[in-house]
Every structure is written in C-alpha cells, then in structure tokens.
Amino acid sequence: GGKHGKLQPVDLSHHINAKSKARHPSPLKDIIRFMGQEGMISLAGGLPHPSLFPLERAKFDVLSPSALNSSHTEGGRAAGLSTLDLGRGDSSNGLDLTRFLQYGSGCGDREVIELATELTERVHSPPAAYECLLHPGNTNAWSKVVGLLCEDNDYVVVDEFTYPSAQALWIPVGIRAAPVQADADGLSATGLRDLLENWDESGRGARRPRVIYLVSVGSNPTGISISNRRRKDIYDVCVQFDLIIVEDDPYYFLQYPPYTPAPDRAAPQTQTTTEFLSALTPSFTSIDSQGRVIRLESFSKTVFPGLRLGYFIANPVFTERLLRATEVETQDPAGLSQAFVLALFQQWGMDGYFTWLQNLQCQYRQRRDWLLDAFHEHFAVVPASESPVPSSQGLVVCIPGKAGGTALRPVFRFVEPGAGMFVWSTFLFEDVRRFQQIKQSASQEDPEQAFAQELWMAMADDLVLLTPGSYYHPWQGADMVTTKARGAAPDSAHFRFSFASPTEEQIHEGVRRMRKVIERYWGAEA
Ligand code: PLP
Ligand code: PMP
C-alpha cells in the first residue's frame, strides 16, 4: 500500500532482533497459493468446510454518522438506526460473510487493508513507502513490536509517566524504562538527546536504547500532546541516534480546542472533513521521511474496544516480520470484527466516518470541559506563574487560606489537556501537616507514596476514585521504586483523573467529595 510517489525508506533491517530474524514463514500459508490454482483438487488443506458453520446471517443496527451531533440529540444519541445486513453467498446484500468466517492469510482481509490504507492516506499521508497490517488492538500490536525490536535486558525510552500495560509486558524479560522528562509540549527533545549522548553502556549494563515508545496525542496518563515543533525535534534526534519511534496513538482523533470557562464557551462549530482533518496535529507518521515510525492504529476509542481491531502503519521491512509473528501468534483479527467494520464504512462512507469522529471529539471535549468546570467551581484555579508555588507551566488548584486569611493554599498542579481522556495532576504535599508527620517518622522510606496512598484511600472511603500516579512510574527495576530512588520531585505525588465515562452530575459530585477530603488534610493547622 501507499507506494506511489513515496520516498524509499532507509535500510533499518538491523533493528530487527535475533528472534524475529529467525522466524520462518508458516509453511501452511505457502500452500494456500497453490490451492487457489485453476483446476486444483486439494487434498492438502485443513480448512473447515464453510457449509458446516452454524452462522447464516448477521444484522447489525448502527447509528448514523451524525447521531452524536449535539444540536439534534437528547441524552447523547439521536434516534434512527440503519441495518447492516450480511449474509452468506447469494443471500448476501453486500459483503459475503463466508469470506470473513474462514481462515485468512494472516494479513487480514484485502478490503479491510485497503480501507486502512485509504484512512492512512487521508489522515497522515506518509512521505515514505509503508504498508498496513491488521492487528487485534494496540495492546497486542505493542507486544508484537517488542517481539520485533527488543532484546532481553534492553532499555526502551518512554515518557516520564507512561502507560502501564506497555511496561508490564516487558518486566519479565528484564527490559527497563529509560524515562525522559516532559513539559506542556510533550517529551523533551533536549532531554532525549542528553540521555542518548551520555548513555553509559557499561554502567547501565545495556546497549543504548533503540526504541522510543510514545503516546503522542492526549497521552495516557498525562493528557499531553506533543506539539508540532517538538515532534520535528524529537524526530531529528531519533534520526541522529538511529531510534525507531513507536507511536501508540489511540486518542489521536480526540483533540480539543483550549478550555474556556462555561459562560464564555461557544458551541462547537461543524467543520468540513477538510477542516476537521487539517486541524489535527500532524502525527510522527506524517513526518516520517525515513520509515522509522511504527504507528499503532486502533478502532478501540473511535468505534468500540470489543472489536479488537486495529492496524500497523510501518516500513515494509517491519510489516514483513510482523506478519511472520501474526501468522503464528494471532492470525487475522476476528472475522466478524473485520466484516462489521467494512460494512460500517460501506454504510457511512469515509466522510461519514470523519463526521462520526468530529462529533465524538465534541462529546469528549464536553466531558473535558465538565471536569475543568468542576475544578473552577469547587476550587480557586490560578495560573502556575502567579500561584503560591511559582512554576512556568499549567495551573494550580488551591483552597482558601486558613482562618479567613487571604493567601491561597496550593493543592495540585495540572496542565489543561488538549486531547484524550485524562487530566494528570501533581499534588503538592509540602503544606500538609499529616504528610510532614509521615516524613519525620524515620521508618518511612517513601513518605510521598505513603501519604498518596493514605489520601487515595481517604477519597475512596468518601466514594470518589482517582488513579494513583504510581501506576505510571517508569519501571527501572525493583530497586528504583521509591520517590527518592527515582529521583522524582520530593513532597509531591500524582493522580490521574479520567473524564471519559462519568456524567456531568457525577463529575461535579466527585470533585465536591474530593474537596471535602482535601479540606480535611490541607486545612488542618500546621
Ligand atoms: N495504548 C494506550 C496508550 C492506551 O491508553 C490504550 C487504552 O486505553 C491502549 C493502548 C489499548 O488499546 P487497544 O484497545 O487498541 O488494545
Ligand atoms: N483494559 C484494557 C485492556 C485497556 O486497554 C484499557 C485502556 N487502556 C483499560 C483496561 C482501561 O485502562 P485505563 O483506565 O488505565 O486506561
């Protein structure tokens, strides 16, 4: 796919690890070619006979692409369904289901791959030649990429806070994280260069990292998107030090305009597809002139997670090896999911899908706004630069000073997310009497995490749940878990707020309950 007028990727085959190099094509897949030959009587195949499958017809009632448009919905979704009707052979109105019930070649259905390629061209228009290969969601896709590129005991470059499943995968094989700090524009390119330039191979007991894992838009957990300018800088460093960029980007289409407080907030304007697409921040894939980006695309956040369907966009030298892994690990993604997605796109059209995404974006933007509204309603929110704990970026959530004093007391710092489903917070413990007590007890090795755990539990007792920031700490080995050992900022810890699923009322009530707990701890006389 996508080879016309494209740059030839540079040779990156030296990145393929020893295990992946040693993979042979599955011999069973080779013979399929002969089975299709004119006049061939195959006594060879092990395919089950399609007349013996117990499924005859599948009907799916689906929403229209504009069903989420806030101007004509009540309680979220407009009425009006259309039916995707998939039958077998002659009974089929469109797609013949039989093709999706049988074993496939491993790369996925040809038409679904064409769809993935068309989406890739419309959205990312990659400068270098690439291929799309289907996979069952980014979780498994990342596992295949680690199986392609990493050796045991390697380091992988990650954000300072990163998606835990990505790390949990490699802890058993001794892979560790090499974290790079980030600011409101995303991972620091200078920090990345410093890390790689000063890599001490014998001190670390491992070669310089060759892979960087990034959740580049609306990161899980930080909510931060890598800015356009920063992407170019990161890409240049990756060229200089020969890194492969793995872009795990499930929140890409959930990009929002800056937050405006409720009274001044304009209703979202409907955009044309061209306006919608051109407002999206360019992906690493879209600037990848060398073929060193492996992009993981997933329908989990745009259609639904139970599909277990997505695709790689990558240099053919990588998709060839990823296909070898696919043949023996997962085969084609589930046929019914492929059939559903193809039928949905036939019903909606590609522009219909972009309309769906645009409305989806508005829905999640609204949820982001509800959470930030609740912060403003229940706390004093001040720019970090003017706060009691001056810092250059973000906002600080404060409670009023004690005993009628005018000074605000800082509680947590955050950056307004321009994408995704999360607000990442840095709680500031310095003023908290209970924290100081814990810190003074000689037996406490990690007072920050001990107090964070107590605070988290106190909130849970009051029926409001946040995700502990410790879930997202980079895994650097069992001896690098305490705040001190990690070299993390003292007197603080993190929590992740998700605005993806609660209602507006639940968000407001949750933040109100949180404030009560905070008042108890932050309000106590020091
Ligand atoms: N990667 C990141 C960064 C995620 O946040 C998630 C889910 O939220 C996933 C991967 C899982 O994606 P999938 O459902 O495609 O496996
Ligand atoms: N389970 C799986 C398999 C997921 O991919 C996700 C989303 N990343 C979740 C659960 C939800 O996890 P979280 O709330 O940490 O994003």
Automatic annotation (TrEMBL):
Q: Which cofactor does it need?
A: pyridoxal 5'-phosphate
Q: Which InterPro entries match?
A: Aminotransferase_I/II_large, Class-I_PLP-dep_aminotransf, PyrdxlP-dep_Trfase, PyrdxlP-dep_Trfase_major
Q: Describe the location of the Aminotransferase class I/classII large domain by residue ranges.
A: 131-513
Superkingdom to which the source organism belongs: Eukaryota
Q: What Gene Ontology molecular-function terms does this entry list?
A: 2-aminoadipate transaminase activity; aromatic-amino-acid transaminase activity; pyridoxal phosphate binding
GO terms (BP aspect): aromatic amino acid family catabolic process; lysine biosynthetic process via aminoadipic acid; tyrosine biosynthetic process
Transferase recorded as keyword:
yes
Say if the entry is tagged with keyword Transferase.
yes
Ordered alphabetically, the record's keywords are:
Aminotransferase, Pyridoxal phosphate, Transferase
Enumerate the Pfam families for this protein. Aminotran_1_2 (PF00155)
**Family in the record:** Belongs to the class-I pyridoxal-phosphate-dependent aminotransferase family.
Q: What is this protein called?
A: Aminotransferase class I/classII large domain-containing protein
Query: Which species is listed as the source?
Result: Oleoguttula mirabilis
